[in-house]
Write a sequence for this structure.
């Protein structure tokens, strides 16, 4: 097997293998949780090194996708509460909060990695990831006291807790990558030779494999939670079903939004690392379709689990946990499909 074919095999099956390995070895991997922050930092640092800050621009689909995300979150909560008032027997606060959280959770920090593999725009998705995470911090601070009055937190306390959780992991690697690019480009010898900063192609693959490693650890935590905090069968069943429905709905809506309002620019080298260049999207609408699909569908489930444990009923964390498994199986299927020859 050649190096190229082995890399393609990893691209197609790494996420699914990470889920299986993490679930099977949860007694070991659940103890590796402290490794997650530095792994996420490195993953984002390598990803942001591929992004020129001058290419980060807001597009119409950014605001449309964000509006849909927030509308689905707030609307689903009030719709489910109304449904529960009509049919009290079917009222399950854990499931209701789980659905709301699966919609409200912002874009995953790893979404640009998968989008790049599928031929989307890393630059445009990086812009939306920053926008989505900080907008969600504001909305959560306003809305969660309504969902769970027992949380008893002020707006500023809640906003600070979330921004403190998200901010360093998003802005830290972004600023570090930006400073590295500036220092390299303005170094006298590089400037005189006209050289500009670019990652070697072998290094550009690292974020994807680091992300697979984080999935192994997260799966270990999820299985450990299921074992140590067992829930009723029907609660777990409906959480899984609704997580799957919200996942597929958001990917589908993202595809529609990106196709309907494609970005006019995507940034230089936005498709530098793809699974199969022959199957990578070529038109602006096709590129934006992939990008917006990952933006709306791929969620920051690590943050969602933390928000559930901090603000909501503890078992609500099973919702984003199920969502994480489903979205990574779906992403693995997308990568597998993209790797097939035309």
């Amino acid at each position: 097997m050649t190096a190229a074919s082995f890399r393609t095999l990893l691209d197609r099956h790494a996420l699914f293998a990470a889920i299986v390995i993490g679930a099977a070895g949860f007694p070991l991997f659940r103890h590796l949780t402290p490794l997650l922050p530095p792994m996420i930092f490195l993953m984002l640092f390598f990803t942001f090194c591929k992004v020129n800050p001058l290419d980060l621009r807001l597009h119409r689909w950014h605001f449309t996708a964000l509006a849909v995300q927030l509308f689905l979150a707030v609307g689903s909560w009030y719709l489910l509460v109304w449904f529960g008032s009509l049919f009290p027997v079917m009222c399950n606060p854990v499931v209701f909060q789980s659905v709301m959280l699966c919609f409200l959770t912002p874009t995953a920090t790893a979404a640009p990695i998968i989008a790049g593999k599928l031929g989307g725009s890393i630059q445009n998705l990086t812009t939306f990831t920053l926008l989505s995470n900080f907008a969600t911090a504001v909305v959560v601070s306003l809305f969660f006291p309504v969902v769970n009055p027992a949380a008893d937190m002020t707006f500023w306390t809640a906003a600070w807790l979330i921004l403190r959780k998200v901010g360093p992991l998003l802005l830290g690697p972004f600023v570090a990558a930006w400073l590295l690019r500036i220092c390299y480009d303005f170094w006298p010898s590089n400037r005189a030779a006209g050289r500009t900063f670019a990652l070697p192609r072998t290094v550009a693959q690292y974020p994807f494999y680091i992300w697979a490693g984080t999935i192994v650890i997260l799966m270990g935590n999820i299985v450990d939670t299921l074992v140590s905090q067992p829930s009723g069968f029907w609660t777990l069943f409906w959480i899984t079903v609704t997580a799957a429905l919200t996942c597929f709905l958001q990917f589908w809506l993202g595809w529609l939004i990106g196709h309907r309002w494609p970005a006019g620019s995507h940034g230089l080298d936005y498709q530098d690392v793809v699974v199969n260049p022959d199957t990578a999207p070529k038109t602006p609408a096709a590129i934006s379709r992939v990008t917006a699909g990952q933006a709306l569908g791929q969620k920051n489930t690590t943050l969602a689990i933390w928000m559930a444990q901090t603000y909501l009923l503890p078992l609500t964390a099973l919702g984003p946990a199920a969502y994480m498994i489903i979205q990574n199986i779906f992403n693995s299927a997308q990568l597998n499909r993209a790797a097939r020859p035309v």
User: Anything to note?
Assistant: The chain is about 75% helix and 0% strand. The mean pLDDT is 82. The CA atoms of residues 239 and 319 lie 6 Å apart.
